């Protein structure tokens, strides 16, 4: 058995019921009686259903842990209740304890409490499919309450009728987005794969409920019998409205993300099975789908370089025309087209927290295309085909020296995802090779060739002649500094042309750190030399640009803090075995053009291309997931104002994007949040449309506030009830389903029959005998067309009976 404690505190604990204080002495007051006589608990909207049935704020529920342990016999129920009653009386515990009986779905409870000494309170529930007509009104509920009471008393009733409207006219419904169901790759429907889908595919609001309420009516002030009732809803002092929603509505973005999640889970087996099931499959070539073009042959590369974006969509879900349009969308510079990505260009504050890609860039277009292609144009096979063509395009651009349309960065940005860094690395390789070729062409041009036949006659060595010789031999100078060489007075120091350090992506940095860590503590010198390649290159370039220089000259330019005011090296530079001293002695005067490249653009580009070609659809989806979720988050922000769901999504996506080993469950949780955001957006849009259709004498601000209140609260109180503008608006909605075509703008002052009637009757009377103590009693009745539920609270004096 499971024991659960519930407590719903008062909003104002110090505020007590004045009627209770007048009726009972201070020593007779108890918290249970105050709750039973408190009419604010008659029809609460947020509390537990037990609070509404029995009028309780504190209670304990004893429920079976499993269905097999259900209290389904009268004998077991009596034994359990008897034991609880004995324990509570011995402990003087005033807390009500309720036991769940029968099956959980029936919500049957029975319980007991001892609020005061010699007073016992019993709780009972009844659940019926049908009830006699006599008890389907206030008069019958009062008769049920008075049965068994020993003295006459006056009863007070709170009544609530609930009206429902669900027959929405077409004019009050939002035009729903058309779900893309074209699996054959409709080439003309370009908008379907250029945008992120958003919205519900069906009406999300099922019903509008109007609850009219009469609180604490004396039984002598109204008549409510099976044959007649003077309870007019338009005269009720209190109106509340609430919405009922469709269960699990289908939404576009959630559907697309669900399919993308399947792509994340796909493996090599799915591609093999698709190949084996093809009508022209061959057992000998079952692995062709995996190995085809992973490392393109020379002939394929040459053909691709000659034909650029001429694709061949053979045996693929994507047609040749569709592929061309997709590639032109992803690479807009091919067709000299400017894709409109203005909705993504503006950077949001939350994007700084995400490790994604720049807004509106190549990866954003690729993510949008992959999401829609996977959902509507062939699944993983279509994604694999599209990515294969993209890899060929990357290969073509490297071979032809054409940069990618990505944001130009000097090196891969570690604040972006790995796929973005790889594309930036490929761009760096292309630009580095172009610069290198330009330098070689300039050096080999006829106008700049060195004249080997020029000689100088000198009778004896002098400083001036030595300087002239140094000037002739100097190479790779960038600019002149204001300092002179340490050993050659009168000769100025020149900044050399140096190599840029090799840019690294995140995976390369991790690999480098792993290699250095594997060397251990015994290989400190080896580790230092591995990290000093850039230092050696700079020293060689410096010697070539400044013949006759010494280490002090290099330190003056490279690390001025390690040079004293007198021009001597610092203490750490003079230590025996200093790395700088050893590297300087090894360095030869070599300009950049004759040095070994620190950044081998050819090798790094081939690494990027091989990495891209080795990605299967699942791996590709994992690499681009953070970018896709970023785009979806921007779409959600566009359709939703500042919302708690946006904050949750931002946090979850930021955690996923910065974790390389994220799990599929994290993606599933984000998908569920997007579904909630999409449903909320659809509900808001739908209720706005419905309210504005019947808007009259109600300002736009009031409509907006009322719509937000309906969405954010279970019930919304309508101030002024039927006489207010919002009350008239609700009545117009109910009148919208009327078949009266001649009503025009007149409001029908009639509501349909209520779908539910609720009564709460309470009184104070002695029981079981006229000499017994006067104690409170309460009964709750819910009457609908399908069921009747009655919950009673009866107290009795156990001393004077």
How would you describe this protein?
With 801 residues, this protein is an alpha+beta fold. Among the domains are: 184 residues, no CATH class; 192 residues, no CATH class; 114 residues, no CATH class. Helix content is 41%, strand content 14%. The protein has a twelve-stranded mixed β-sheet with strand order 1-2-3-4-5-14-13-12-6-7-8-11. Strands 9-10 form a two-stranded antiparallel ribbon. Helix 14 packs antiparallel against helix 22. The chain is elongated. It starts with a strand and ends with a strand.
Brief overview, please?
It is found in: Cytoplasm; Endoplasmic reticulum; Golgi apparatus, cis-Golgi network. The protein has 801 residues and is α+β, with helices and mostly antiparallel strands.
Keywords summarizing the entry:
801 residues; twelve-stranded mixed β-sheet; two-stranded antiparallel ribbon; 27 helices; 14 strands; 14% strand; elongated; Rab3GAP1; cytoplasm
- Uncertain stretches: 179-188, 278-287, 293-309, 448-462, 739-747
Radius of gyration: 41 Å
Largest sheet: 12 strands, mixed
How far apart the termini lie comes to 35 Å
How many runs of DSSP E, i.e. beta strands? 14
Mean pLDDT, to the nearest integer, reads 80
Assess the beta-strand content as a share of residues. Answer: 5-15%
Number of helical segments with 4 or more residues = 27
Helical residue percent? 40-55%
Looking at how many chains there are and whether they match, the oligomeric state comes to single chain
Which secondary-structure class do the elements indicate?
Answer: alpha+beta
Arrangement of strands in the largest sheet: 1-2-3-4-5-14-13-12-6-7-8-11
């Amino acid at each position: 058995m499971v024991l659960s404690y519930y407590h719903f505190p008062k909003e104002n604990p110090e505020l007590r019921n004045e009627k209770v204080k007048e009726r009972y002495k201070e020593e007779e007051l108890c918290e249970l009686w105050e709750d039973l006589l408190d009419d604010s608990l008659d029809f609460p909207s947020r509390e537990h259903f037990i609070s509404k049935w029995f009028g309780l704020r504190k209670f304990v529920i004893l429920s079976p842990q499993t269905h097999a342990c259900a209290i389904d016999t009268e004998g077991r129920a009596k034994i359990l209740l008897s034991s609880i009653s004995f324990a509570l009386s011995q402990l003087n515990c005033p807390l009500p304890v309720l036991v769940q009986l029968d099956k959980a779905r029936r919500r049957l409870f029975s319980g007991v409490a001892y609020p005061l000494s010699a007073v016992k309170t019993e709780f009972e529930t009844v659940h019926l499919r049908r009830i006699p007509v006599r008890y389907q009104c206030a008069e019958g509920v009062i008769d049920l309450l008075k049965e068994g009471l020993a003295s006459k008393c006056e009863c007070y009733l709170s009544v609530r009728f609930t009206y429902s409207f669900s027959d929405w006219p077409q004019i009050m419904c939002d035009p729903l987005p058309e779900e893309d169901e074209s699996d054959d790759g409709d080439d003309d429907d370009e908008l379907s794969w250029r945008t992120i889908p958003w919205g519900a595919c069906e009406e999300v609001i099922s019903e509008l409920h109007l609850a009219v309420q009469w609180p604490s009516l004396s039984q002598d002030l109204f008549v409510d019998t099976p044959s007649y009732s003077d309870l007019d809803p338009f005269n009720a002092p209190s109106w509340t409205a609430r919405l009922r929603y469709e269960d699990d509505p289908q939404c576009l973005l959630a559907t697309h993300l669900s399919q993308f999640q399947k792509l994340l889970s796909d493996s090599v087996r799915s591609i093999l099975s698709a190949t084996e099931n093809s009508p022209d499959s061959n057992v000998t070539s079952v692995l062709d789908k995996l190995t085809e073009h992973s490392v393109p042959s020379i002939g394929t590369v040459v053909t691709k370089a000659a034909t650029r974006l001429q694709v061949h969509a053979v045996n693929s879900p994507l047609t040749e025309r569709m592929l061309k349009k997709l590639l032109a969308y992803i690479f807009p510079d091919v067709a000299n087209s400017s894709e409109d990505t203005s909705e993504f260009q503006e950077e949001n504050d939350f994007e700084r927290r995400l490790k994604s890609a720049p807004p509106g860039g190549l990866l954003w277009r690729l993510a949008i295309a992959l999401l829609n292609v996977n959902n509507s144009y062939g699944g993983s096979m279509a994604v694999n085909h599209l990515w294969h063509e993209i890899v060929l395009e990357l290969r073509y651009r490297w071979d032809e020296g054409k940069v990618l349309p990505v944001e130009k960065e000097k090196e891969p940005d570690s604040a972006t995802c790995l796929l973005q860094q790889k594309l930036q690395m490929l761009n760096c390789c292309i630009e580095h090779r172009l610069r290198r070729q330009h330098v070689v062409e300039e050096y080999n041009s006829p106008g700049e060739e060195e004249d080997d036949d020029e000689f100088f006659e000198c009778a004896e060595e002098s400083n001036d002649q030595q300087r002239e010789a140094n000037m002739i031999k100097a190479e790779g100078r960038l600019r002149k500094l204001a300092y002179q060489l340490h050993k050659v007075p009168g000769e100025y120091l020149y900044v050399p042309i140096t190599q840029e350090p090799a840019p690294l992506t995140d995976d390369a940095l991790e690999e480098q750190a792993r290699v250095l860590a594997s060397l251990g503590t015994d290989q400190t010198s080896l580790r230092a030399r591995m990290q000093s390649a850039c230092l050696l290159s700079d020293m060689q370039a410096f010697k070539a640009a400044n013949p006759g220089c010494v280490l002090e000259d290099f330190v003056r330019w490279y690390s001025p803090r390690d040079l004293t005011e007198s021009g001597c090296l610092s203490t750490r530079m003079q230590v025996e075995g200093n790395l700088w001293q050893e590297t300087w002695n090894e360095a030869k005067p070599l300009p950049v053009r004759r040095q070994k490249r620190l950044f081998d653009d050819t090798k790094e580009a081939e690494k990027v291309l091989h990495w891209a070609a080795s990605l299967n659809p699942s791996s590709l989806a994992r690499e681009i997931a953070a970018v896709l979720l970023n785009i979806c988050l921007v779409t959600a922000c566009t359709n939703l104002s500042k919302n708690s769901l946006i904050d949750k999504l931002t946090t979850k996506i930021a955690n996923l994007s910065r974790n390389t080993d994220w799990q599929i469950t994290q993606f599933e949780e984000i998908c569920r949040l997007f579904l909630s955001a999409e449903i909320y957006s659809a509900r808001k849009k739908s209720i706005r449309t419905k309210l504005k259709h019947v808007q009259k004498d109600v300002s736009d601000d009031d409509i907006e506030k009322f719509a937000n209140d309906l969405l954010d609260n279970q019930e919304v109180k309508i101030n002024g009830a039927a006489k207010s503008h919002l009350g008239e608006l609700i009545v117009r909605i109910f009148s919208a389903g009327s078949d009266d075509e001649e009503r025009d703008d007149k409001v029908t002052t009639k509501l349909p029959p209520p779908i539910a009637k609720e009564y709460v009757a309470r009184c104070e009377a002695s029981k079981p005998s006229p000499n017994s103590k006067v104690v409170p009693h309460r009964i709750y009745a819910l009457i609908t067309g399908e069921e009747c539920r009655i919950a009673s609270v009866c107290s009795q004096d156990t001393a004077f009976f």
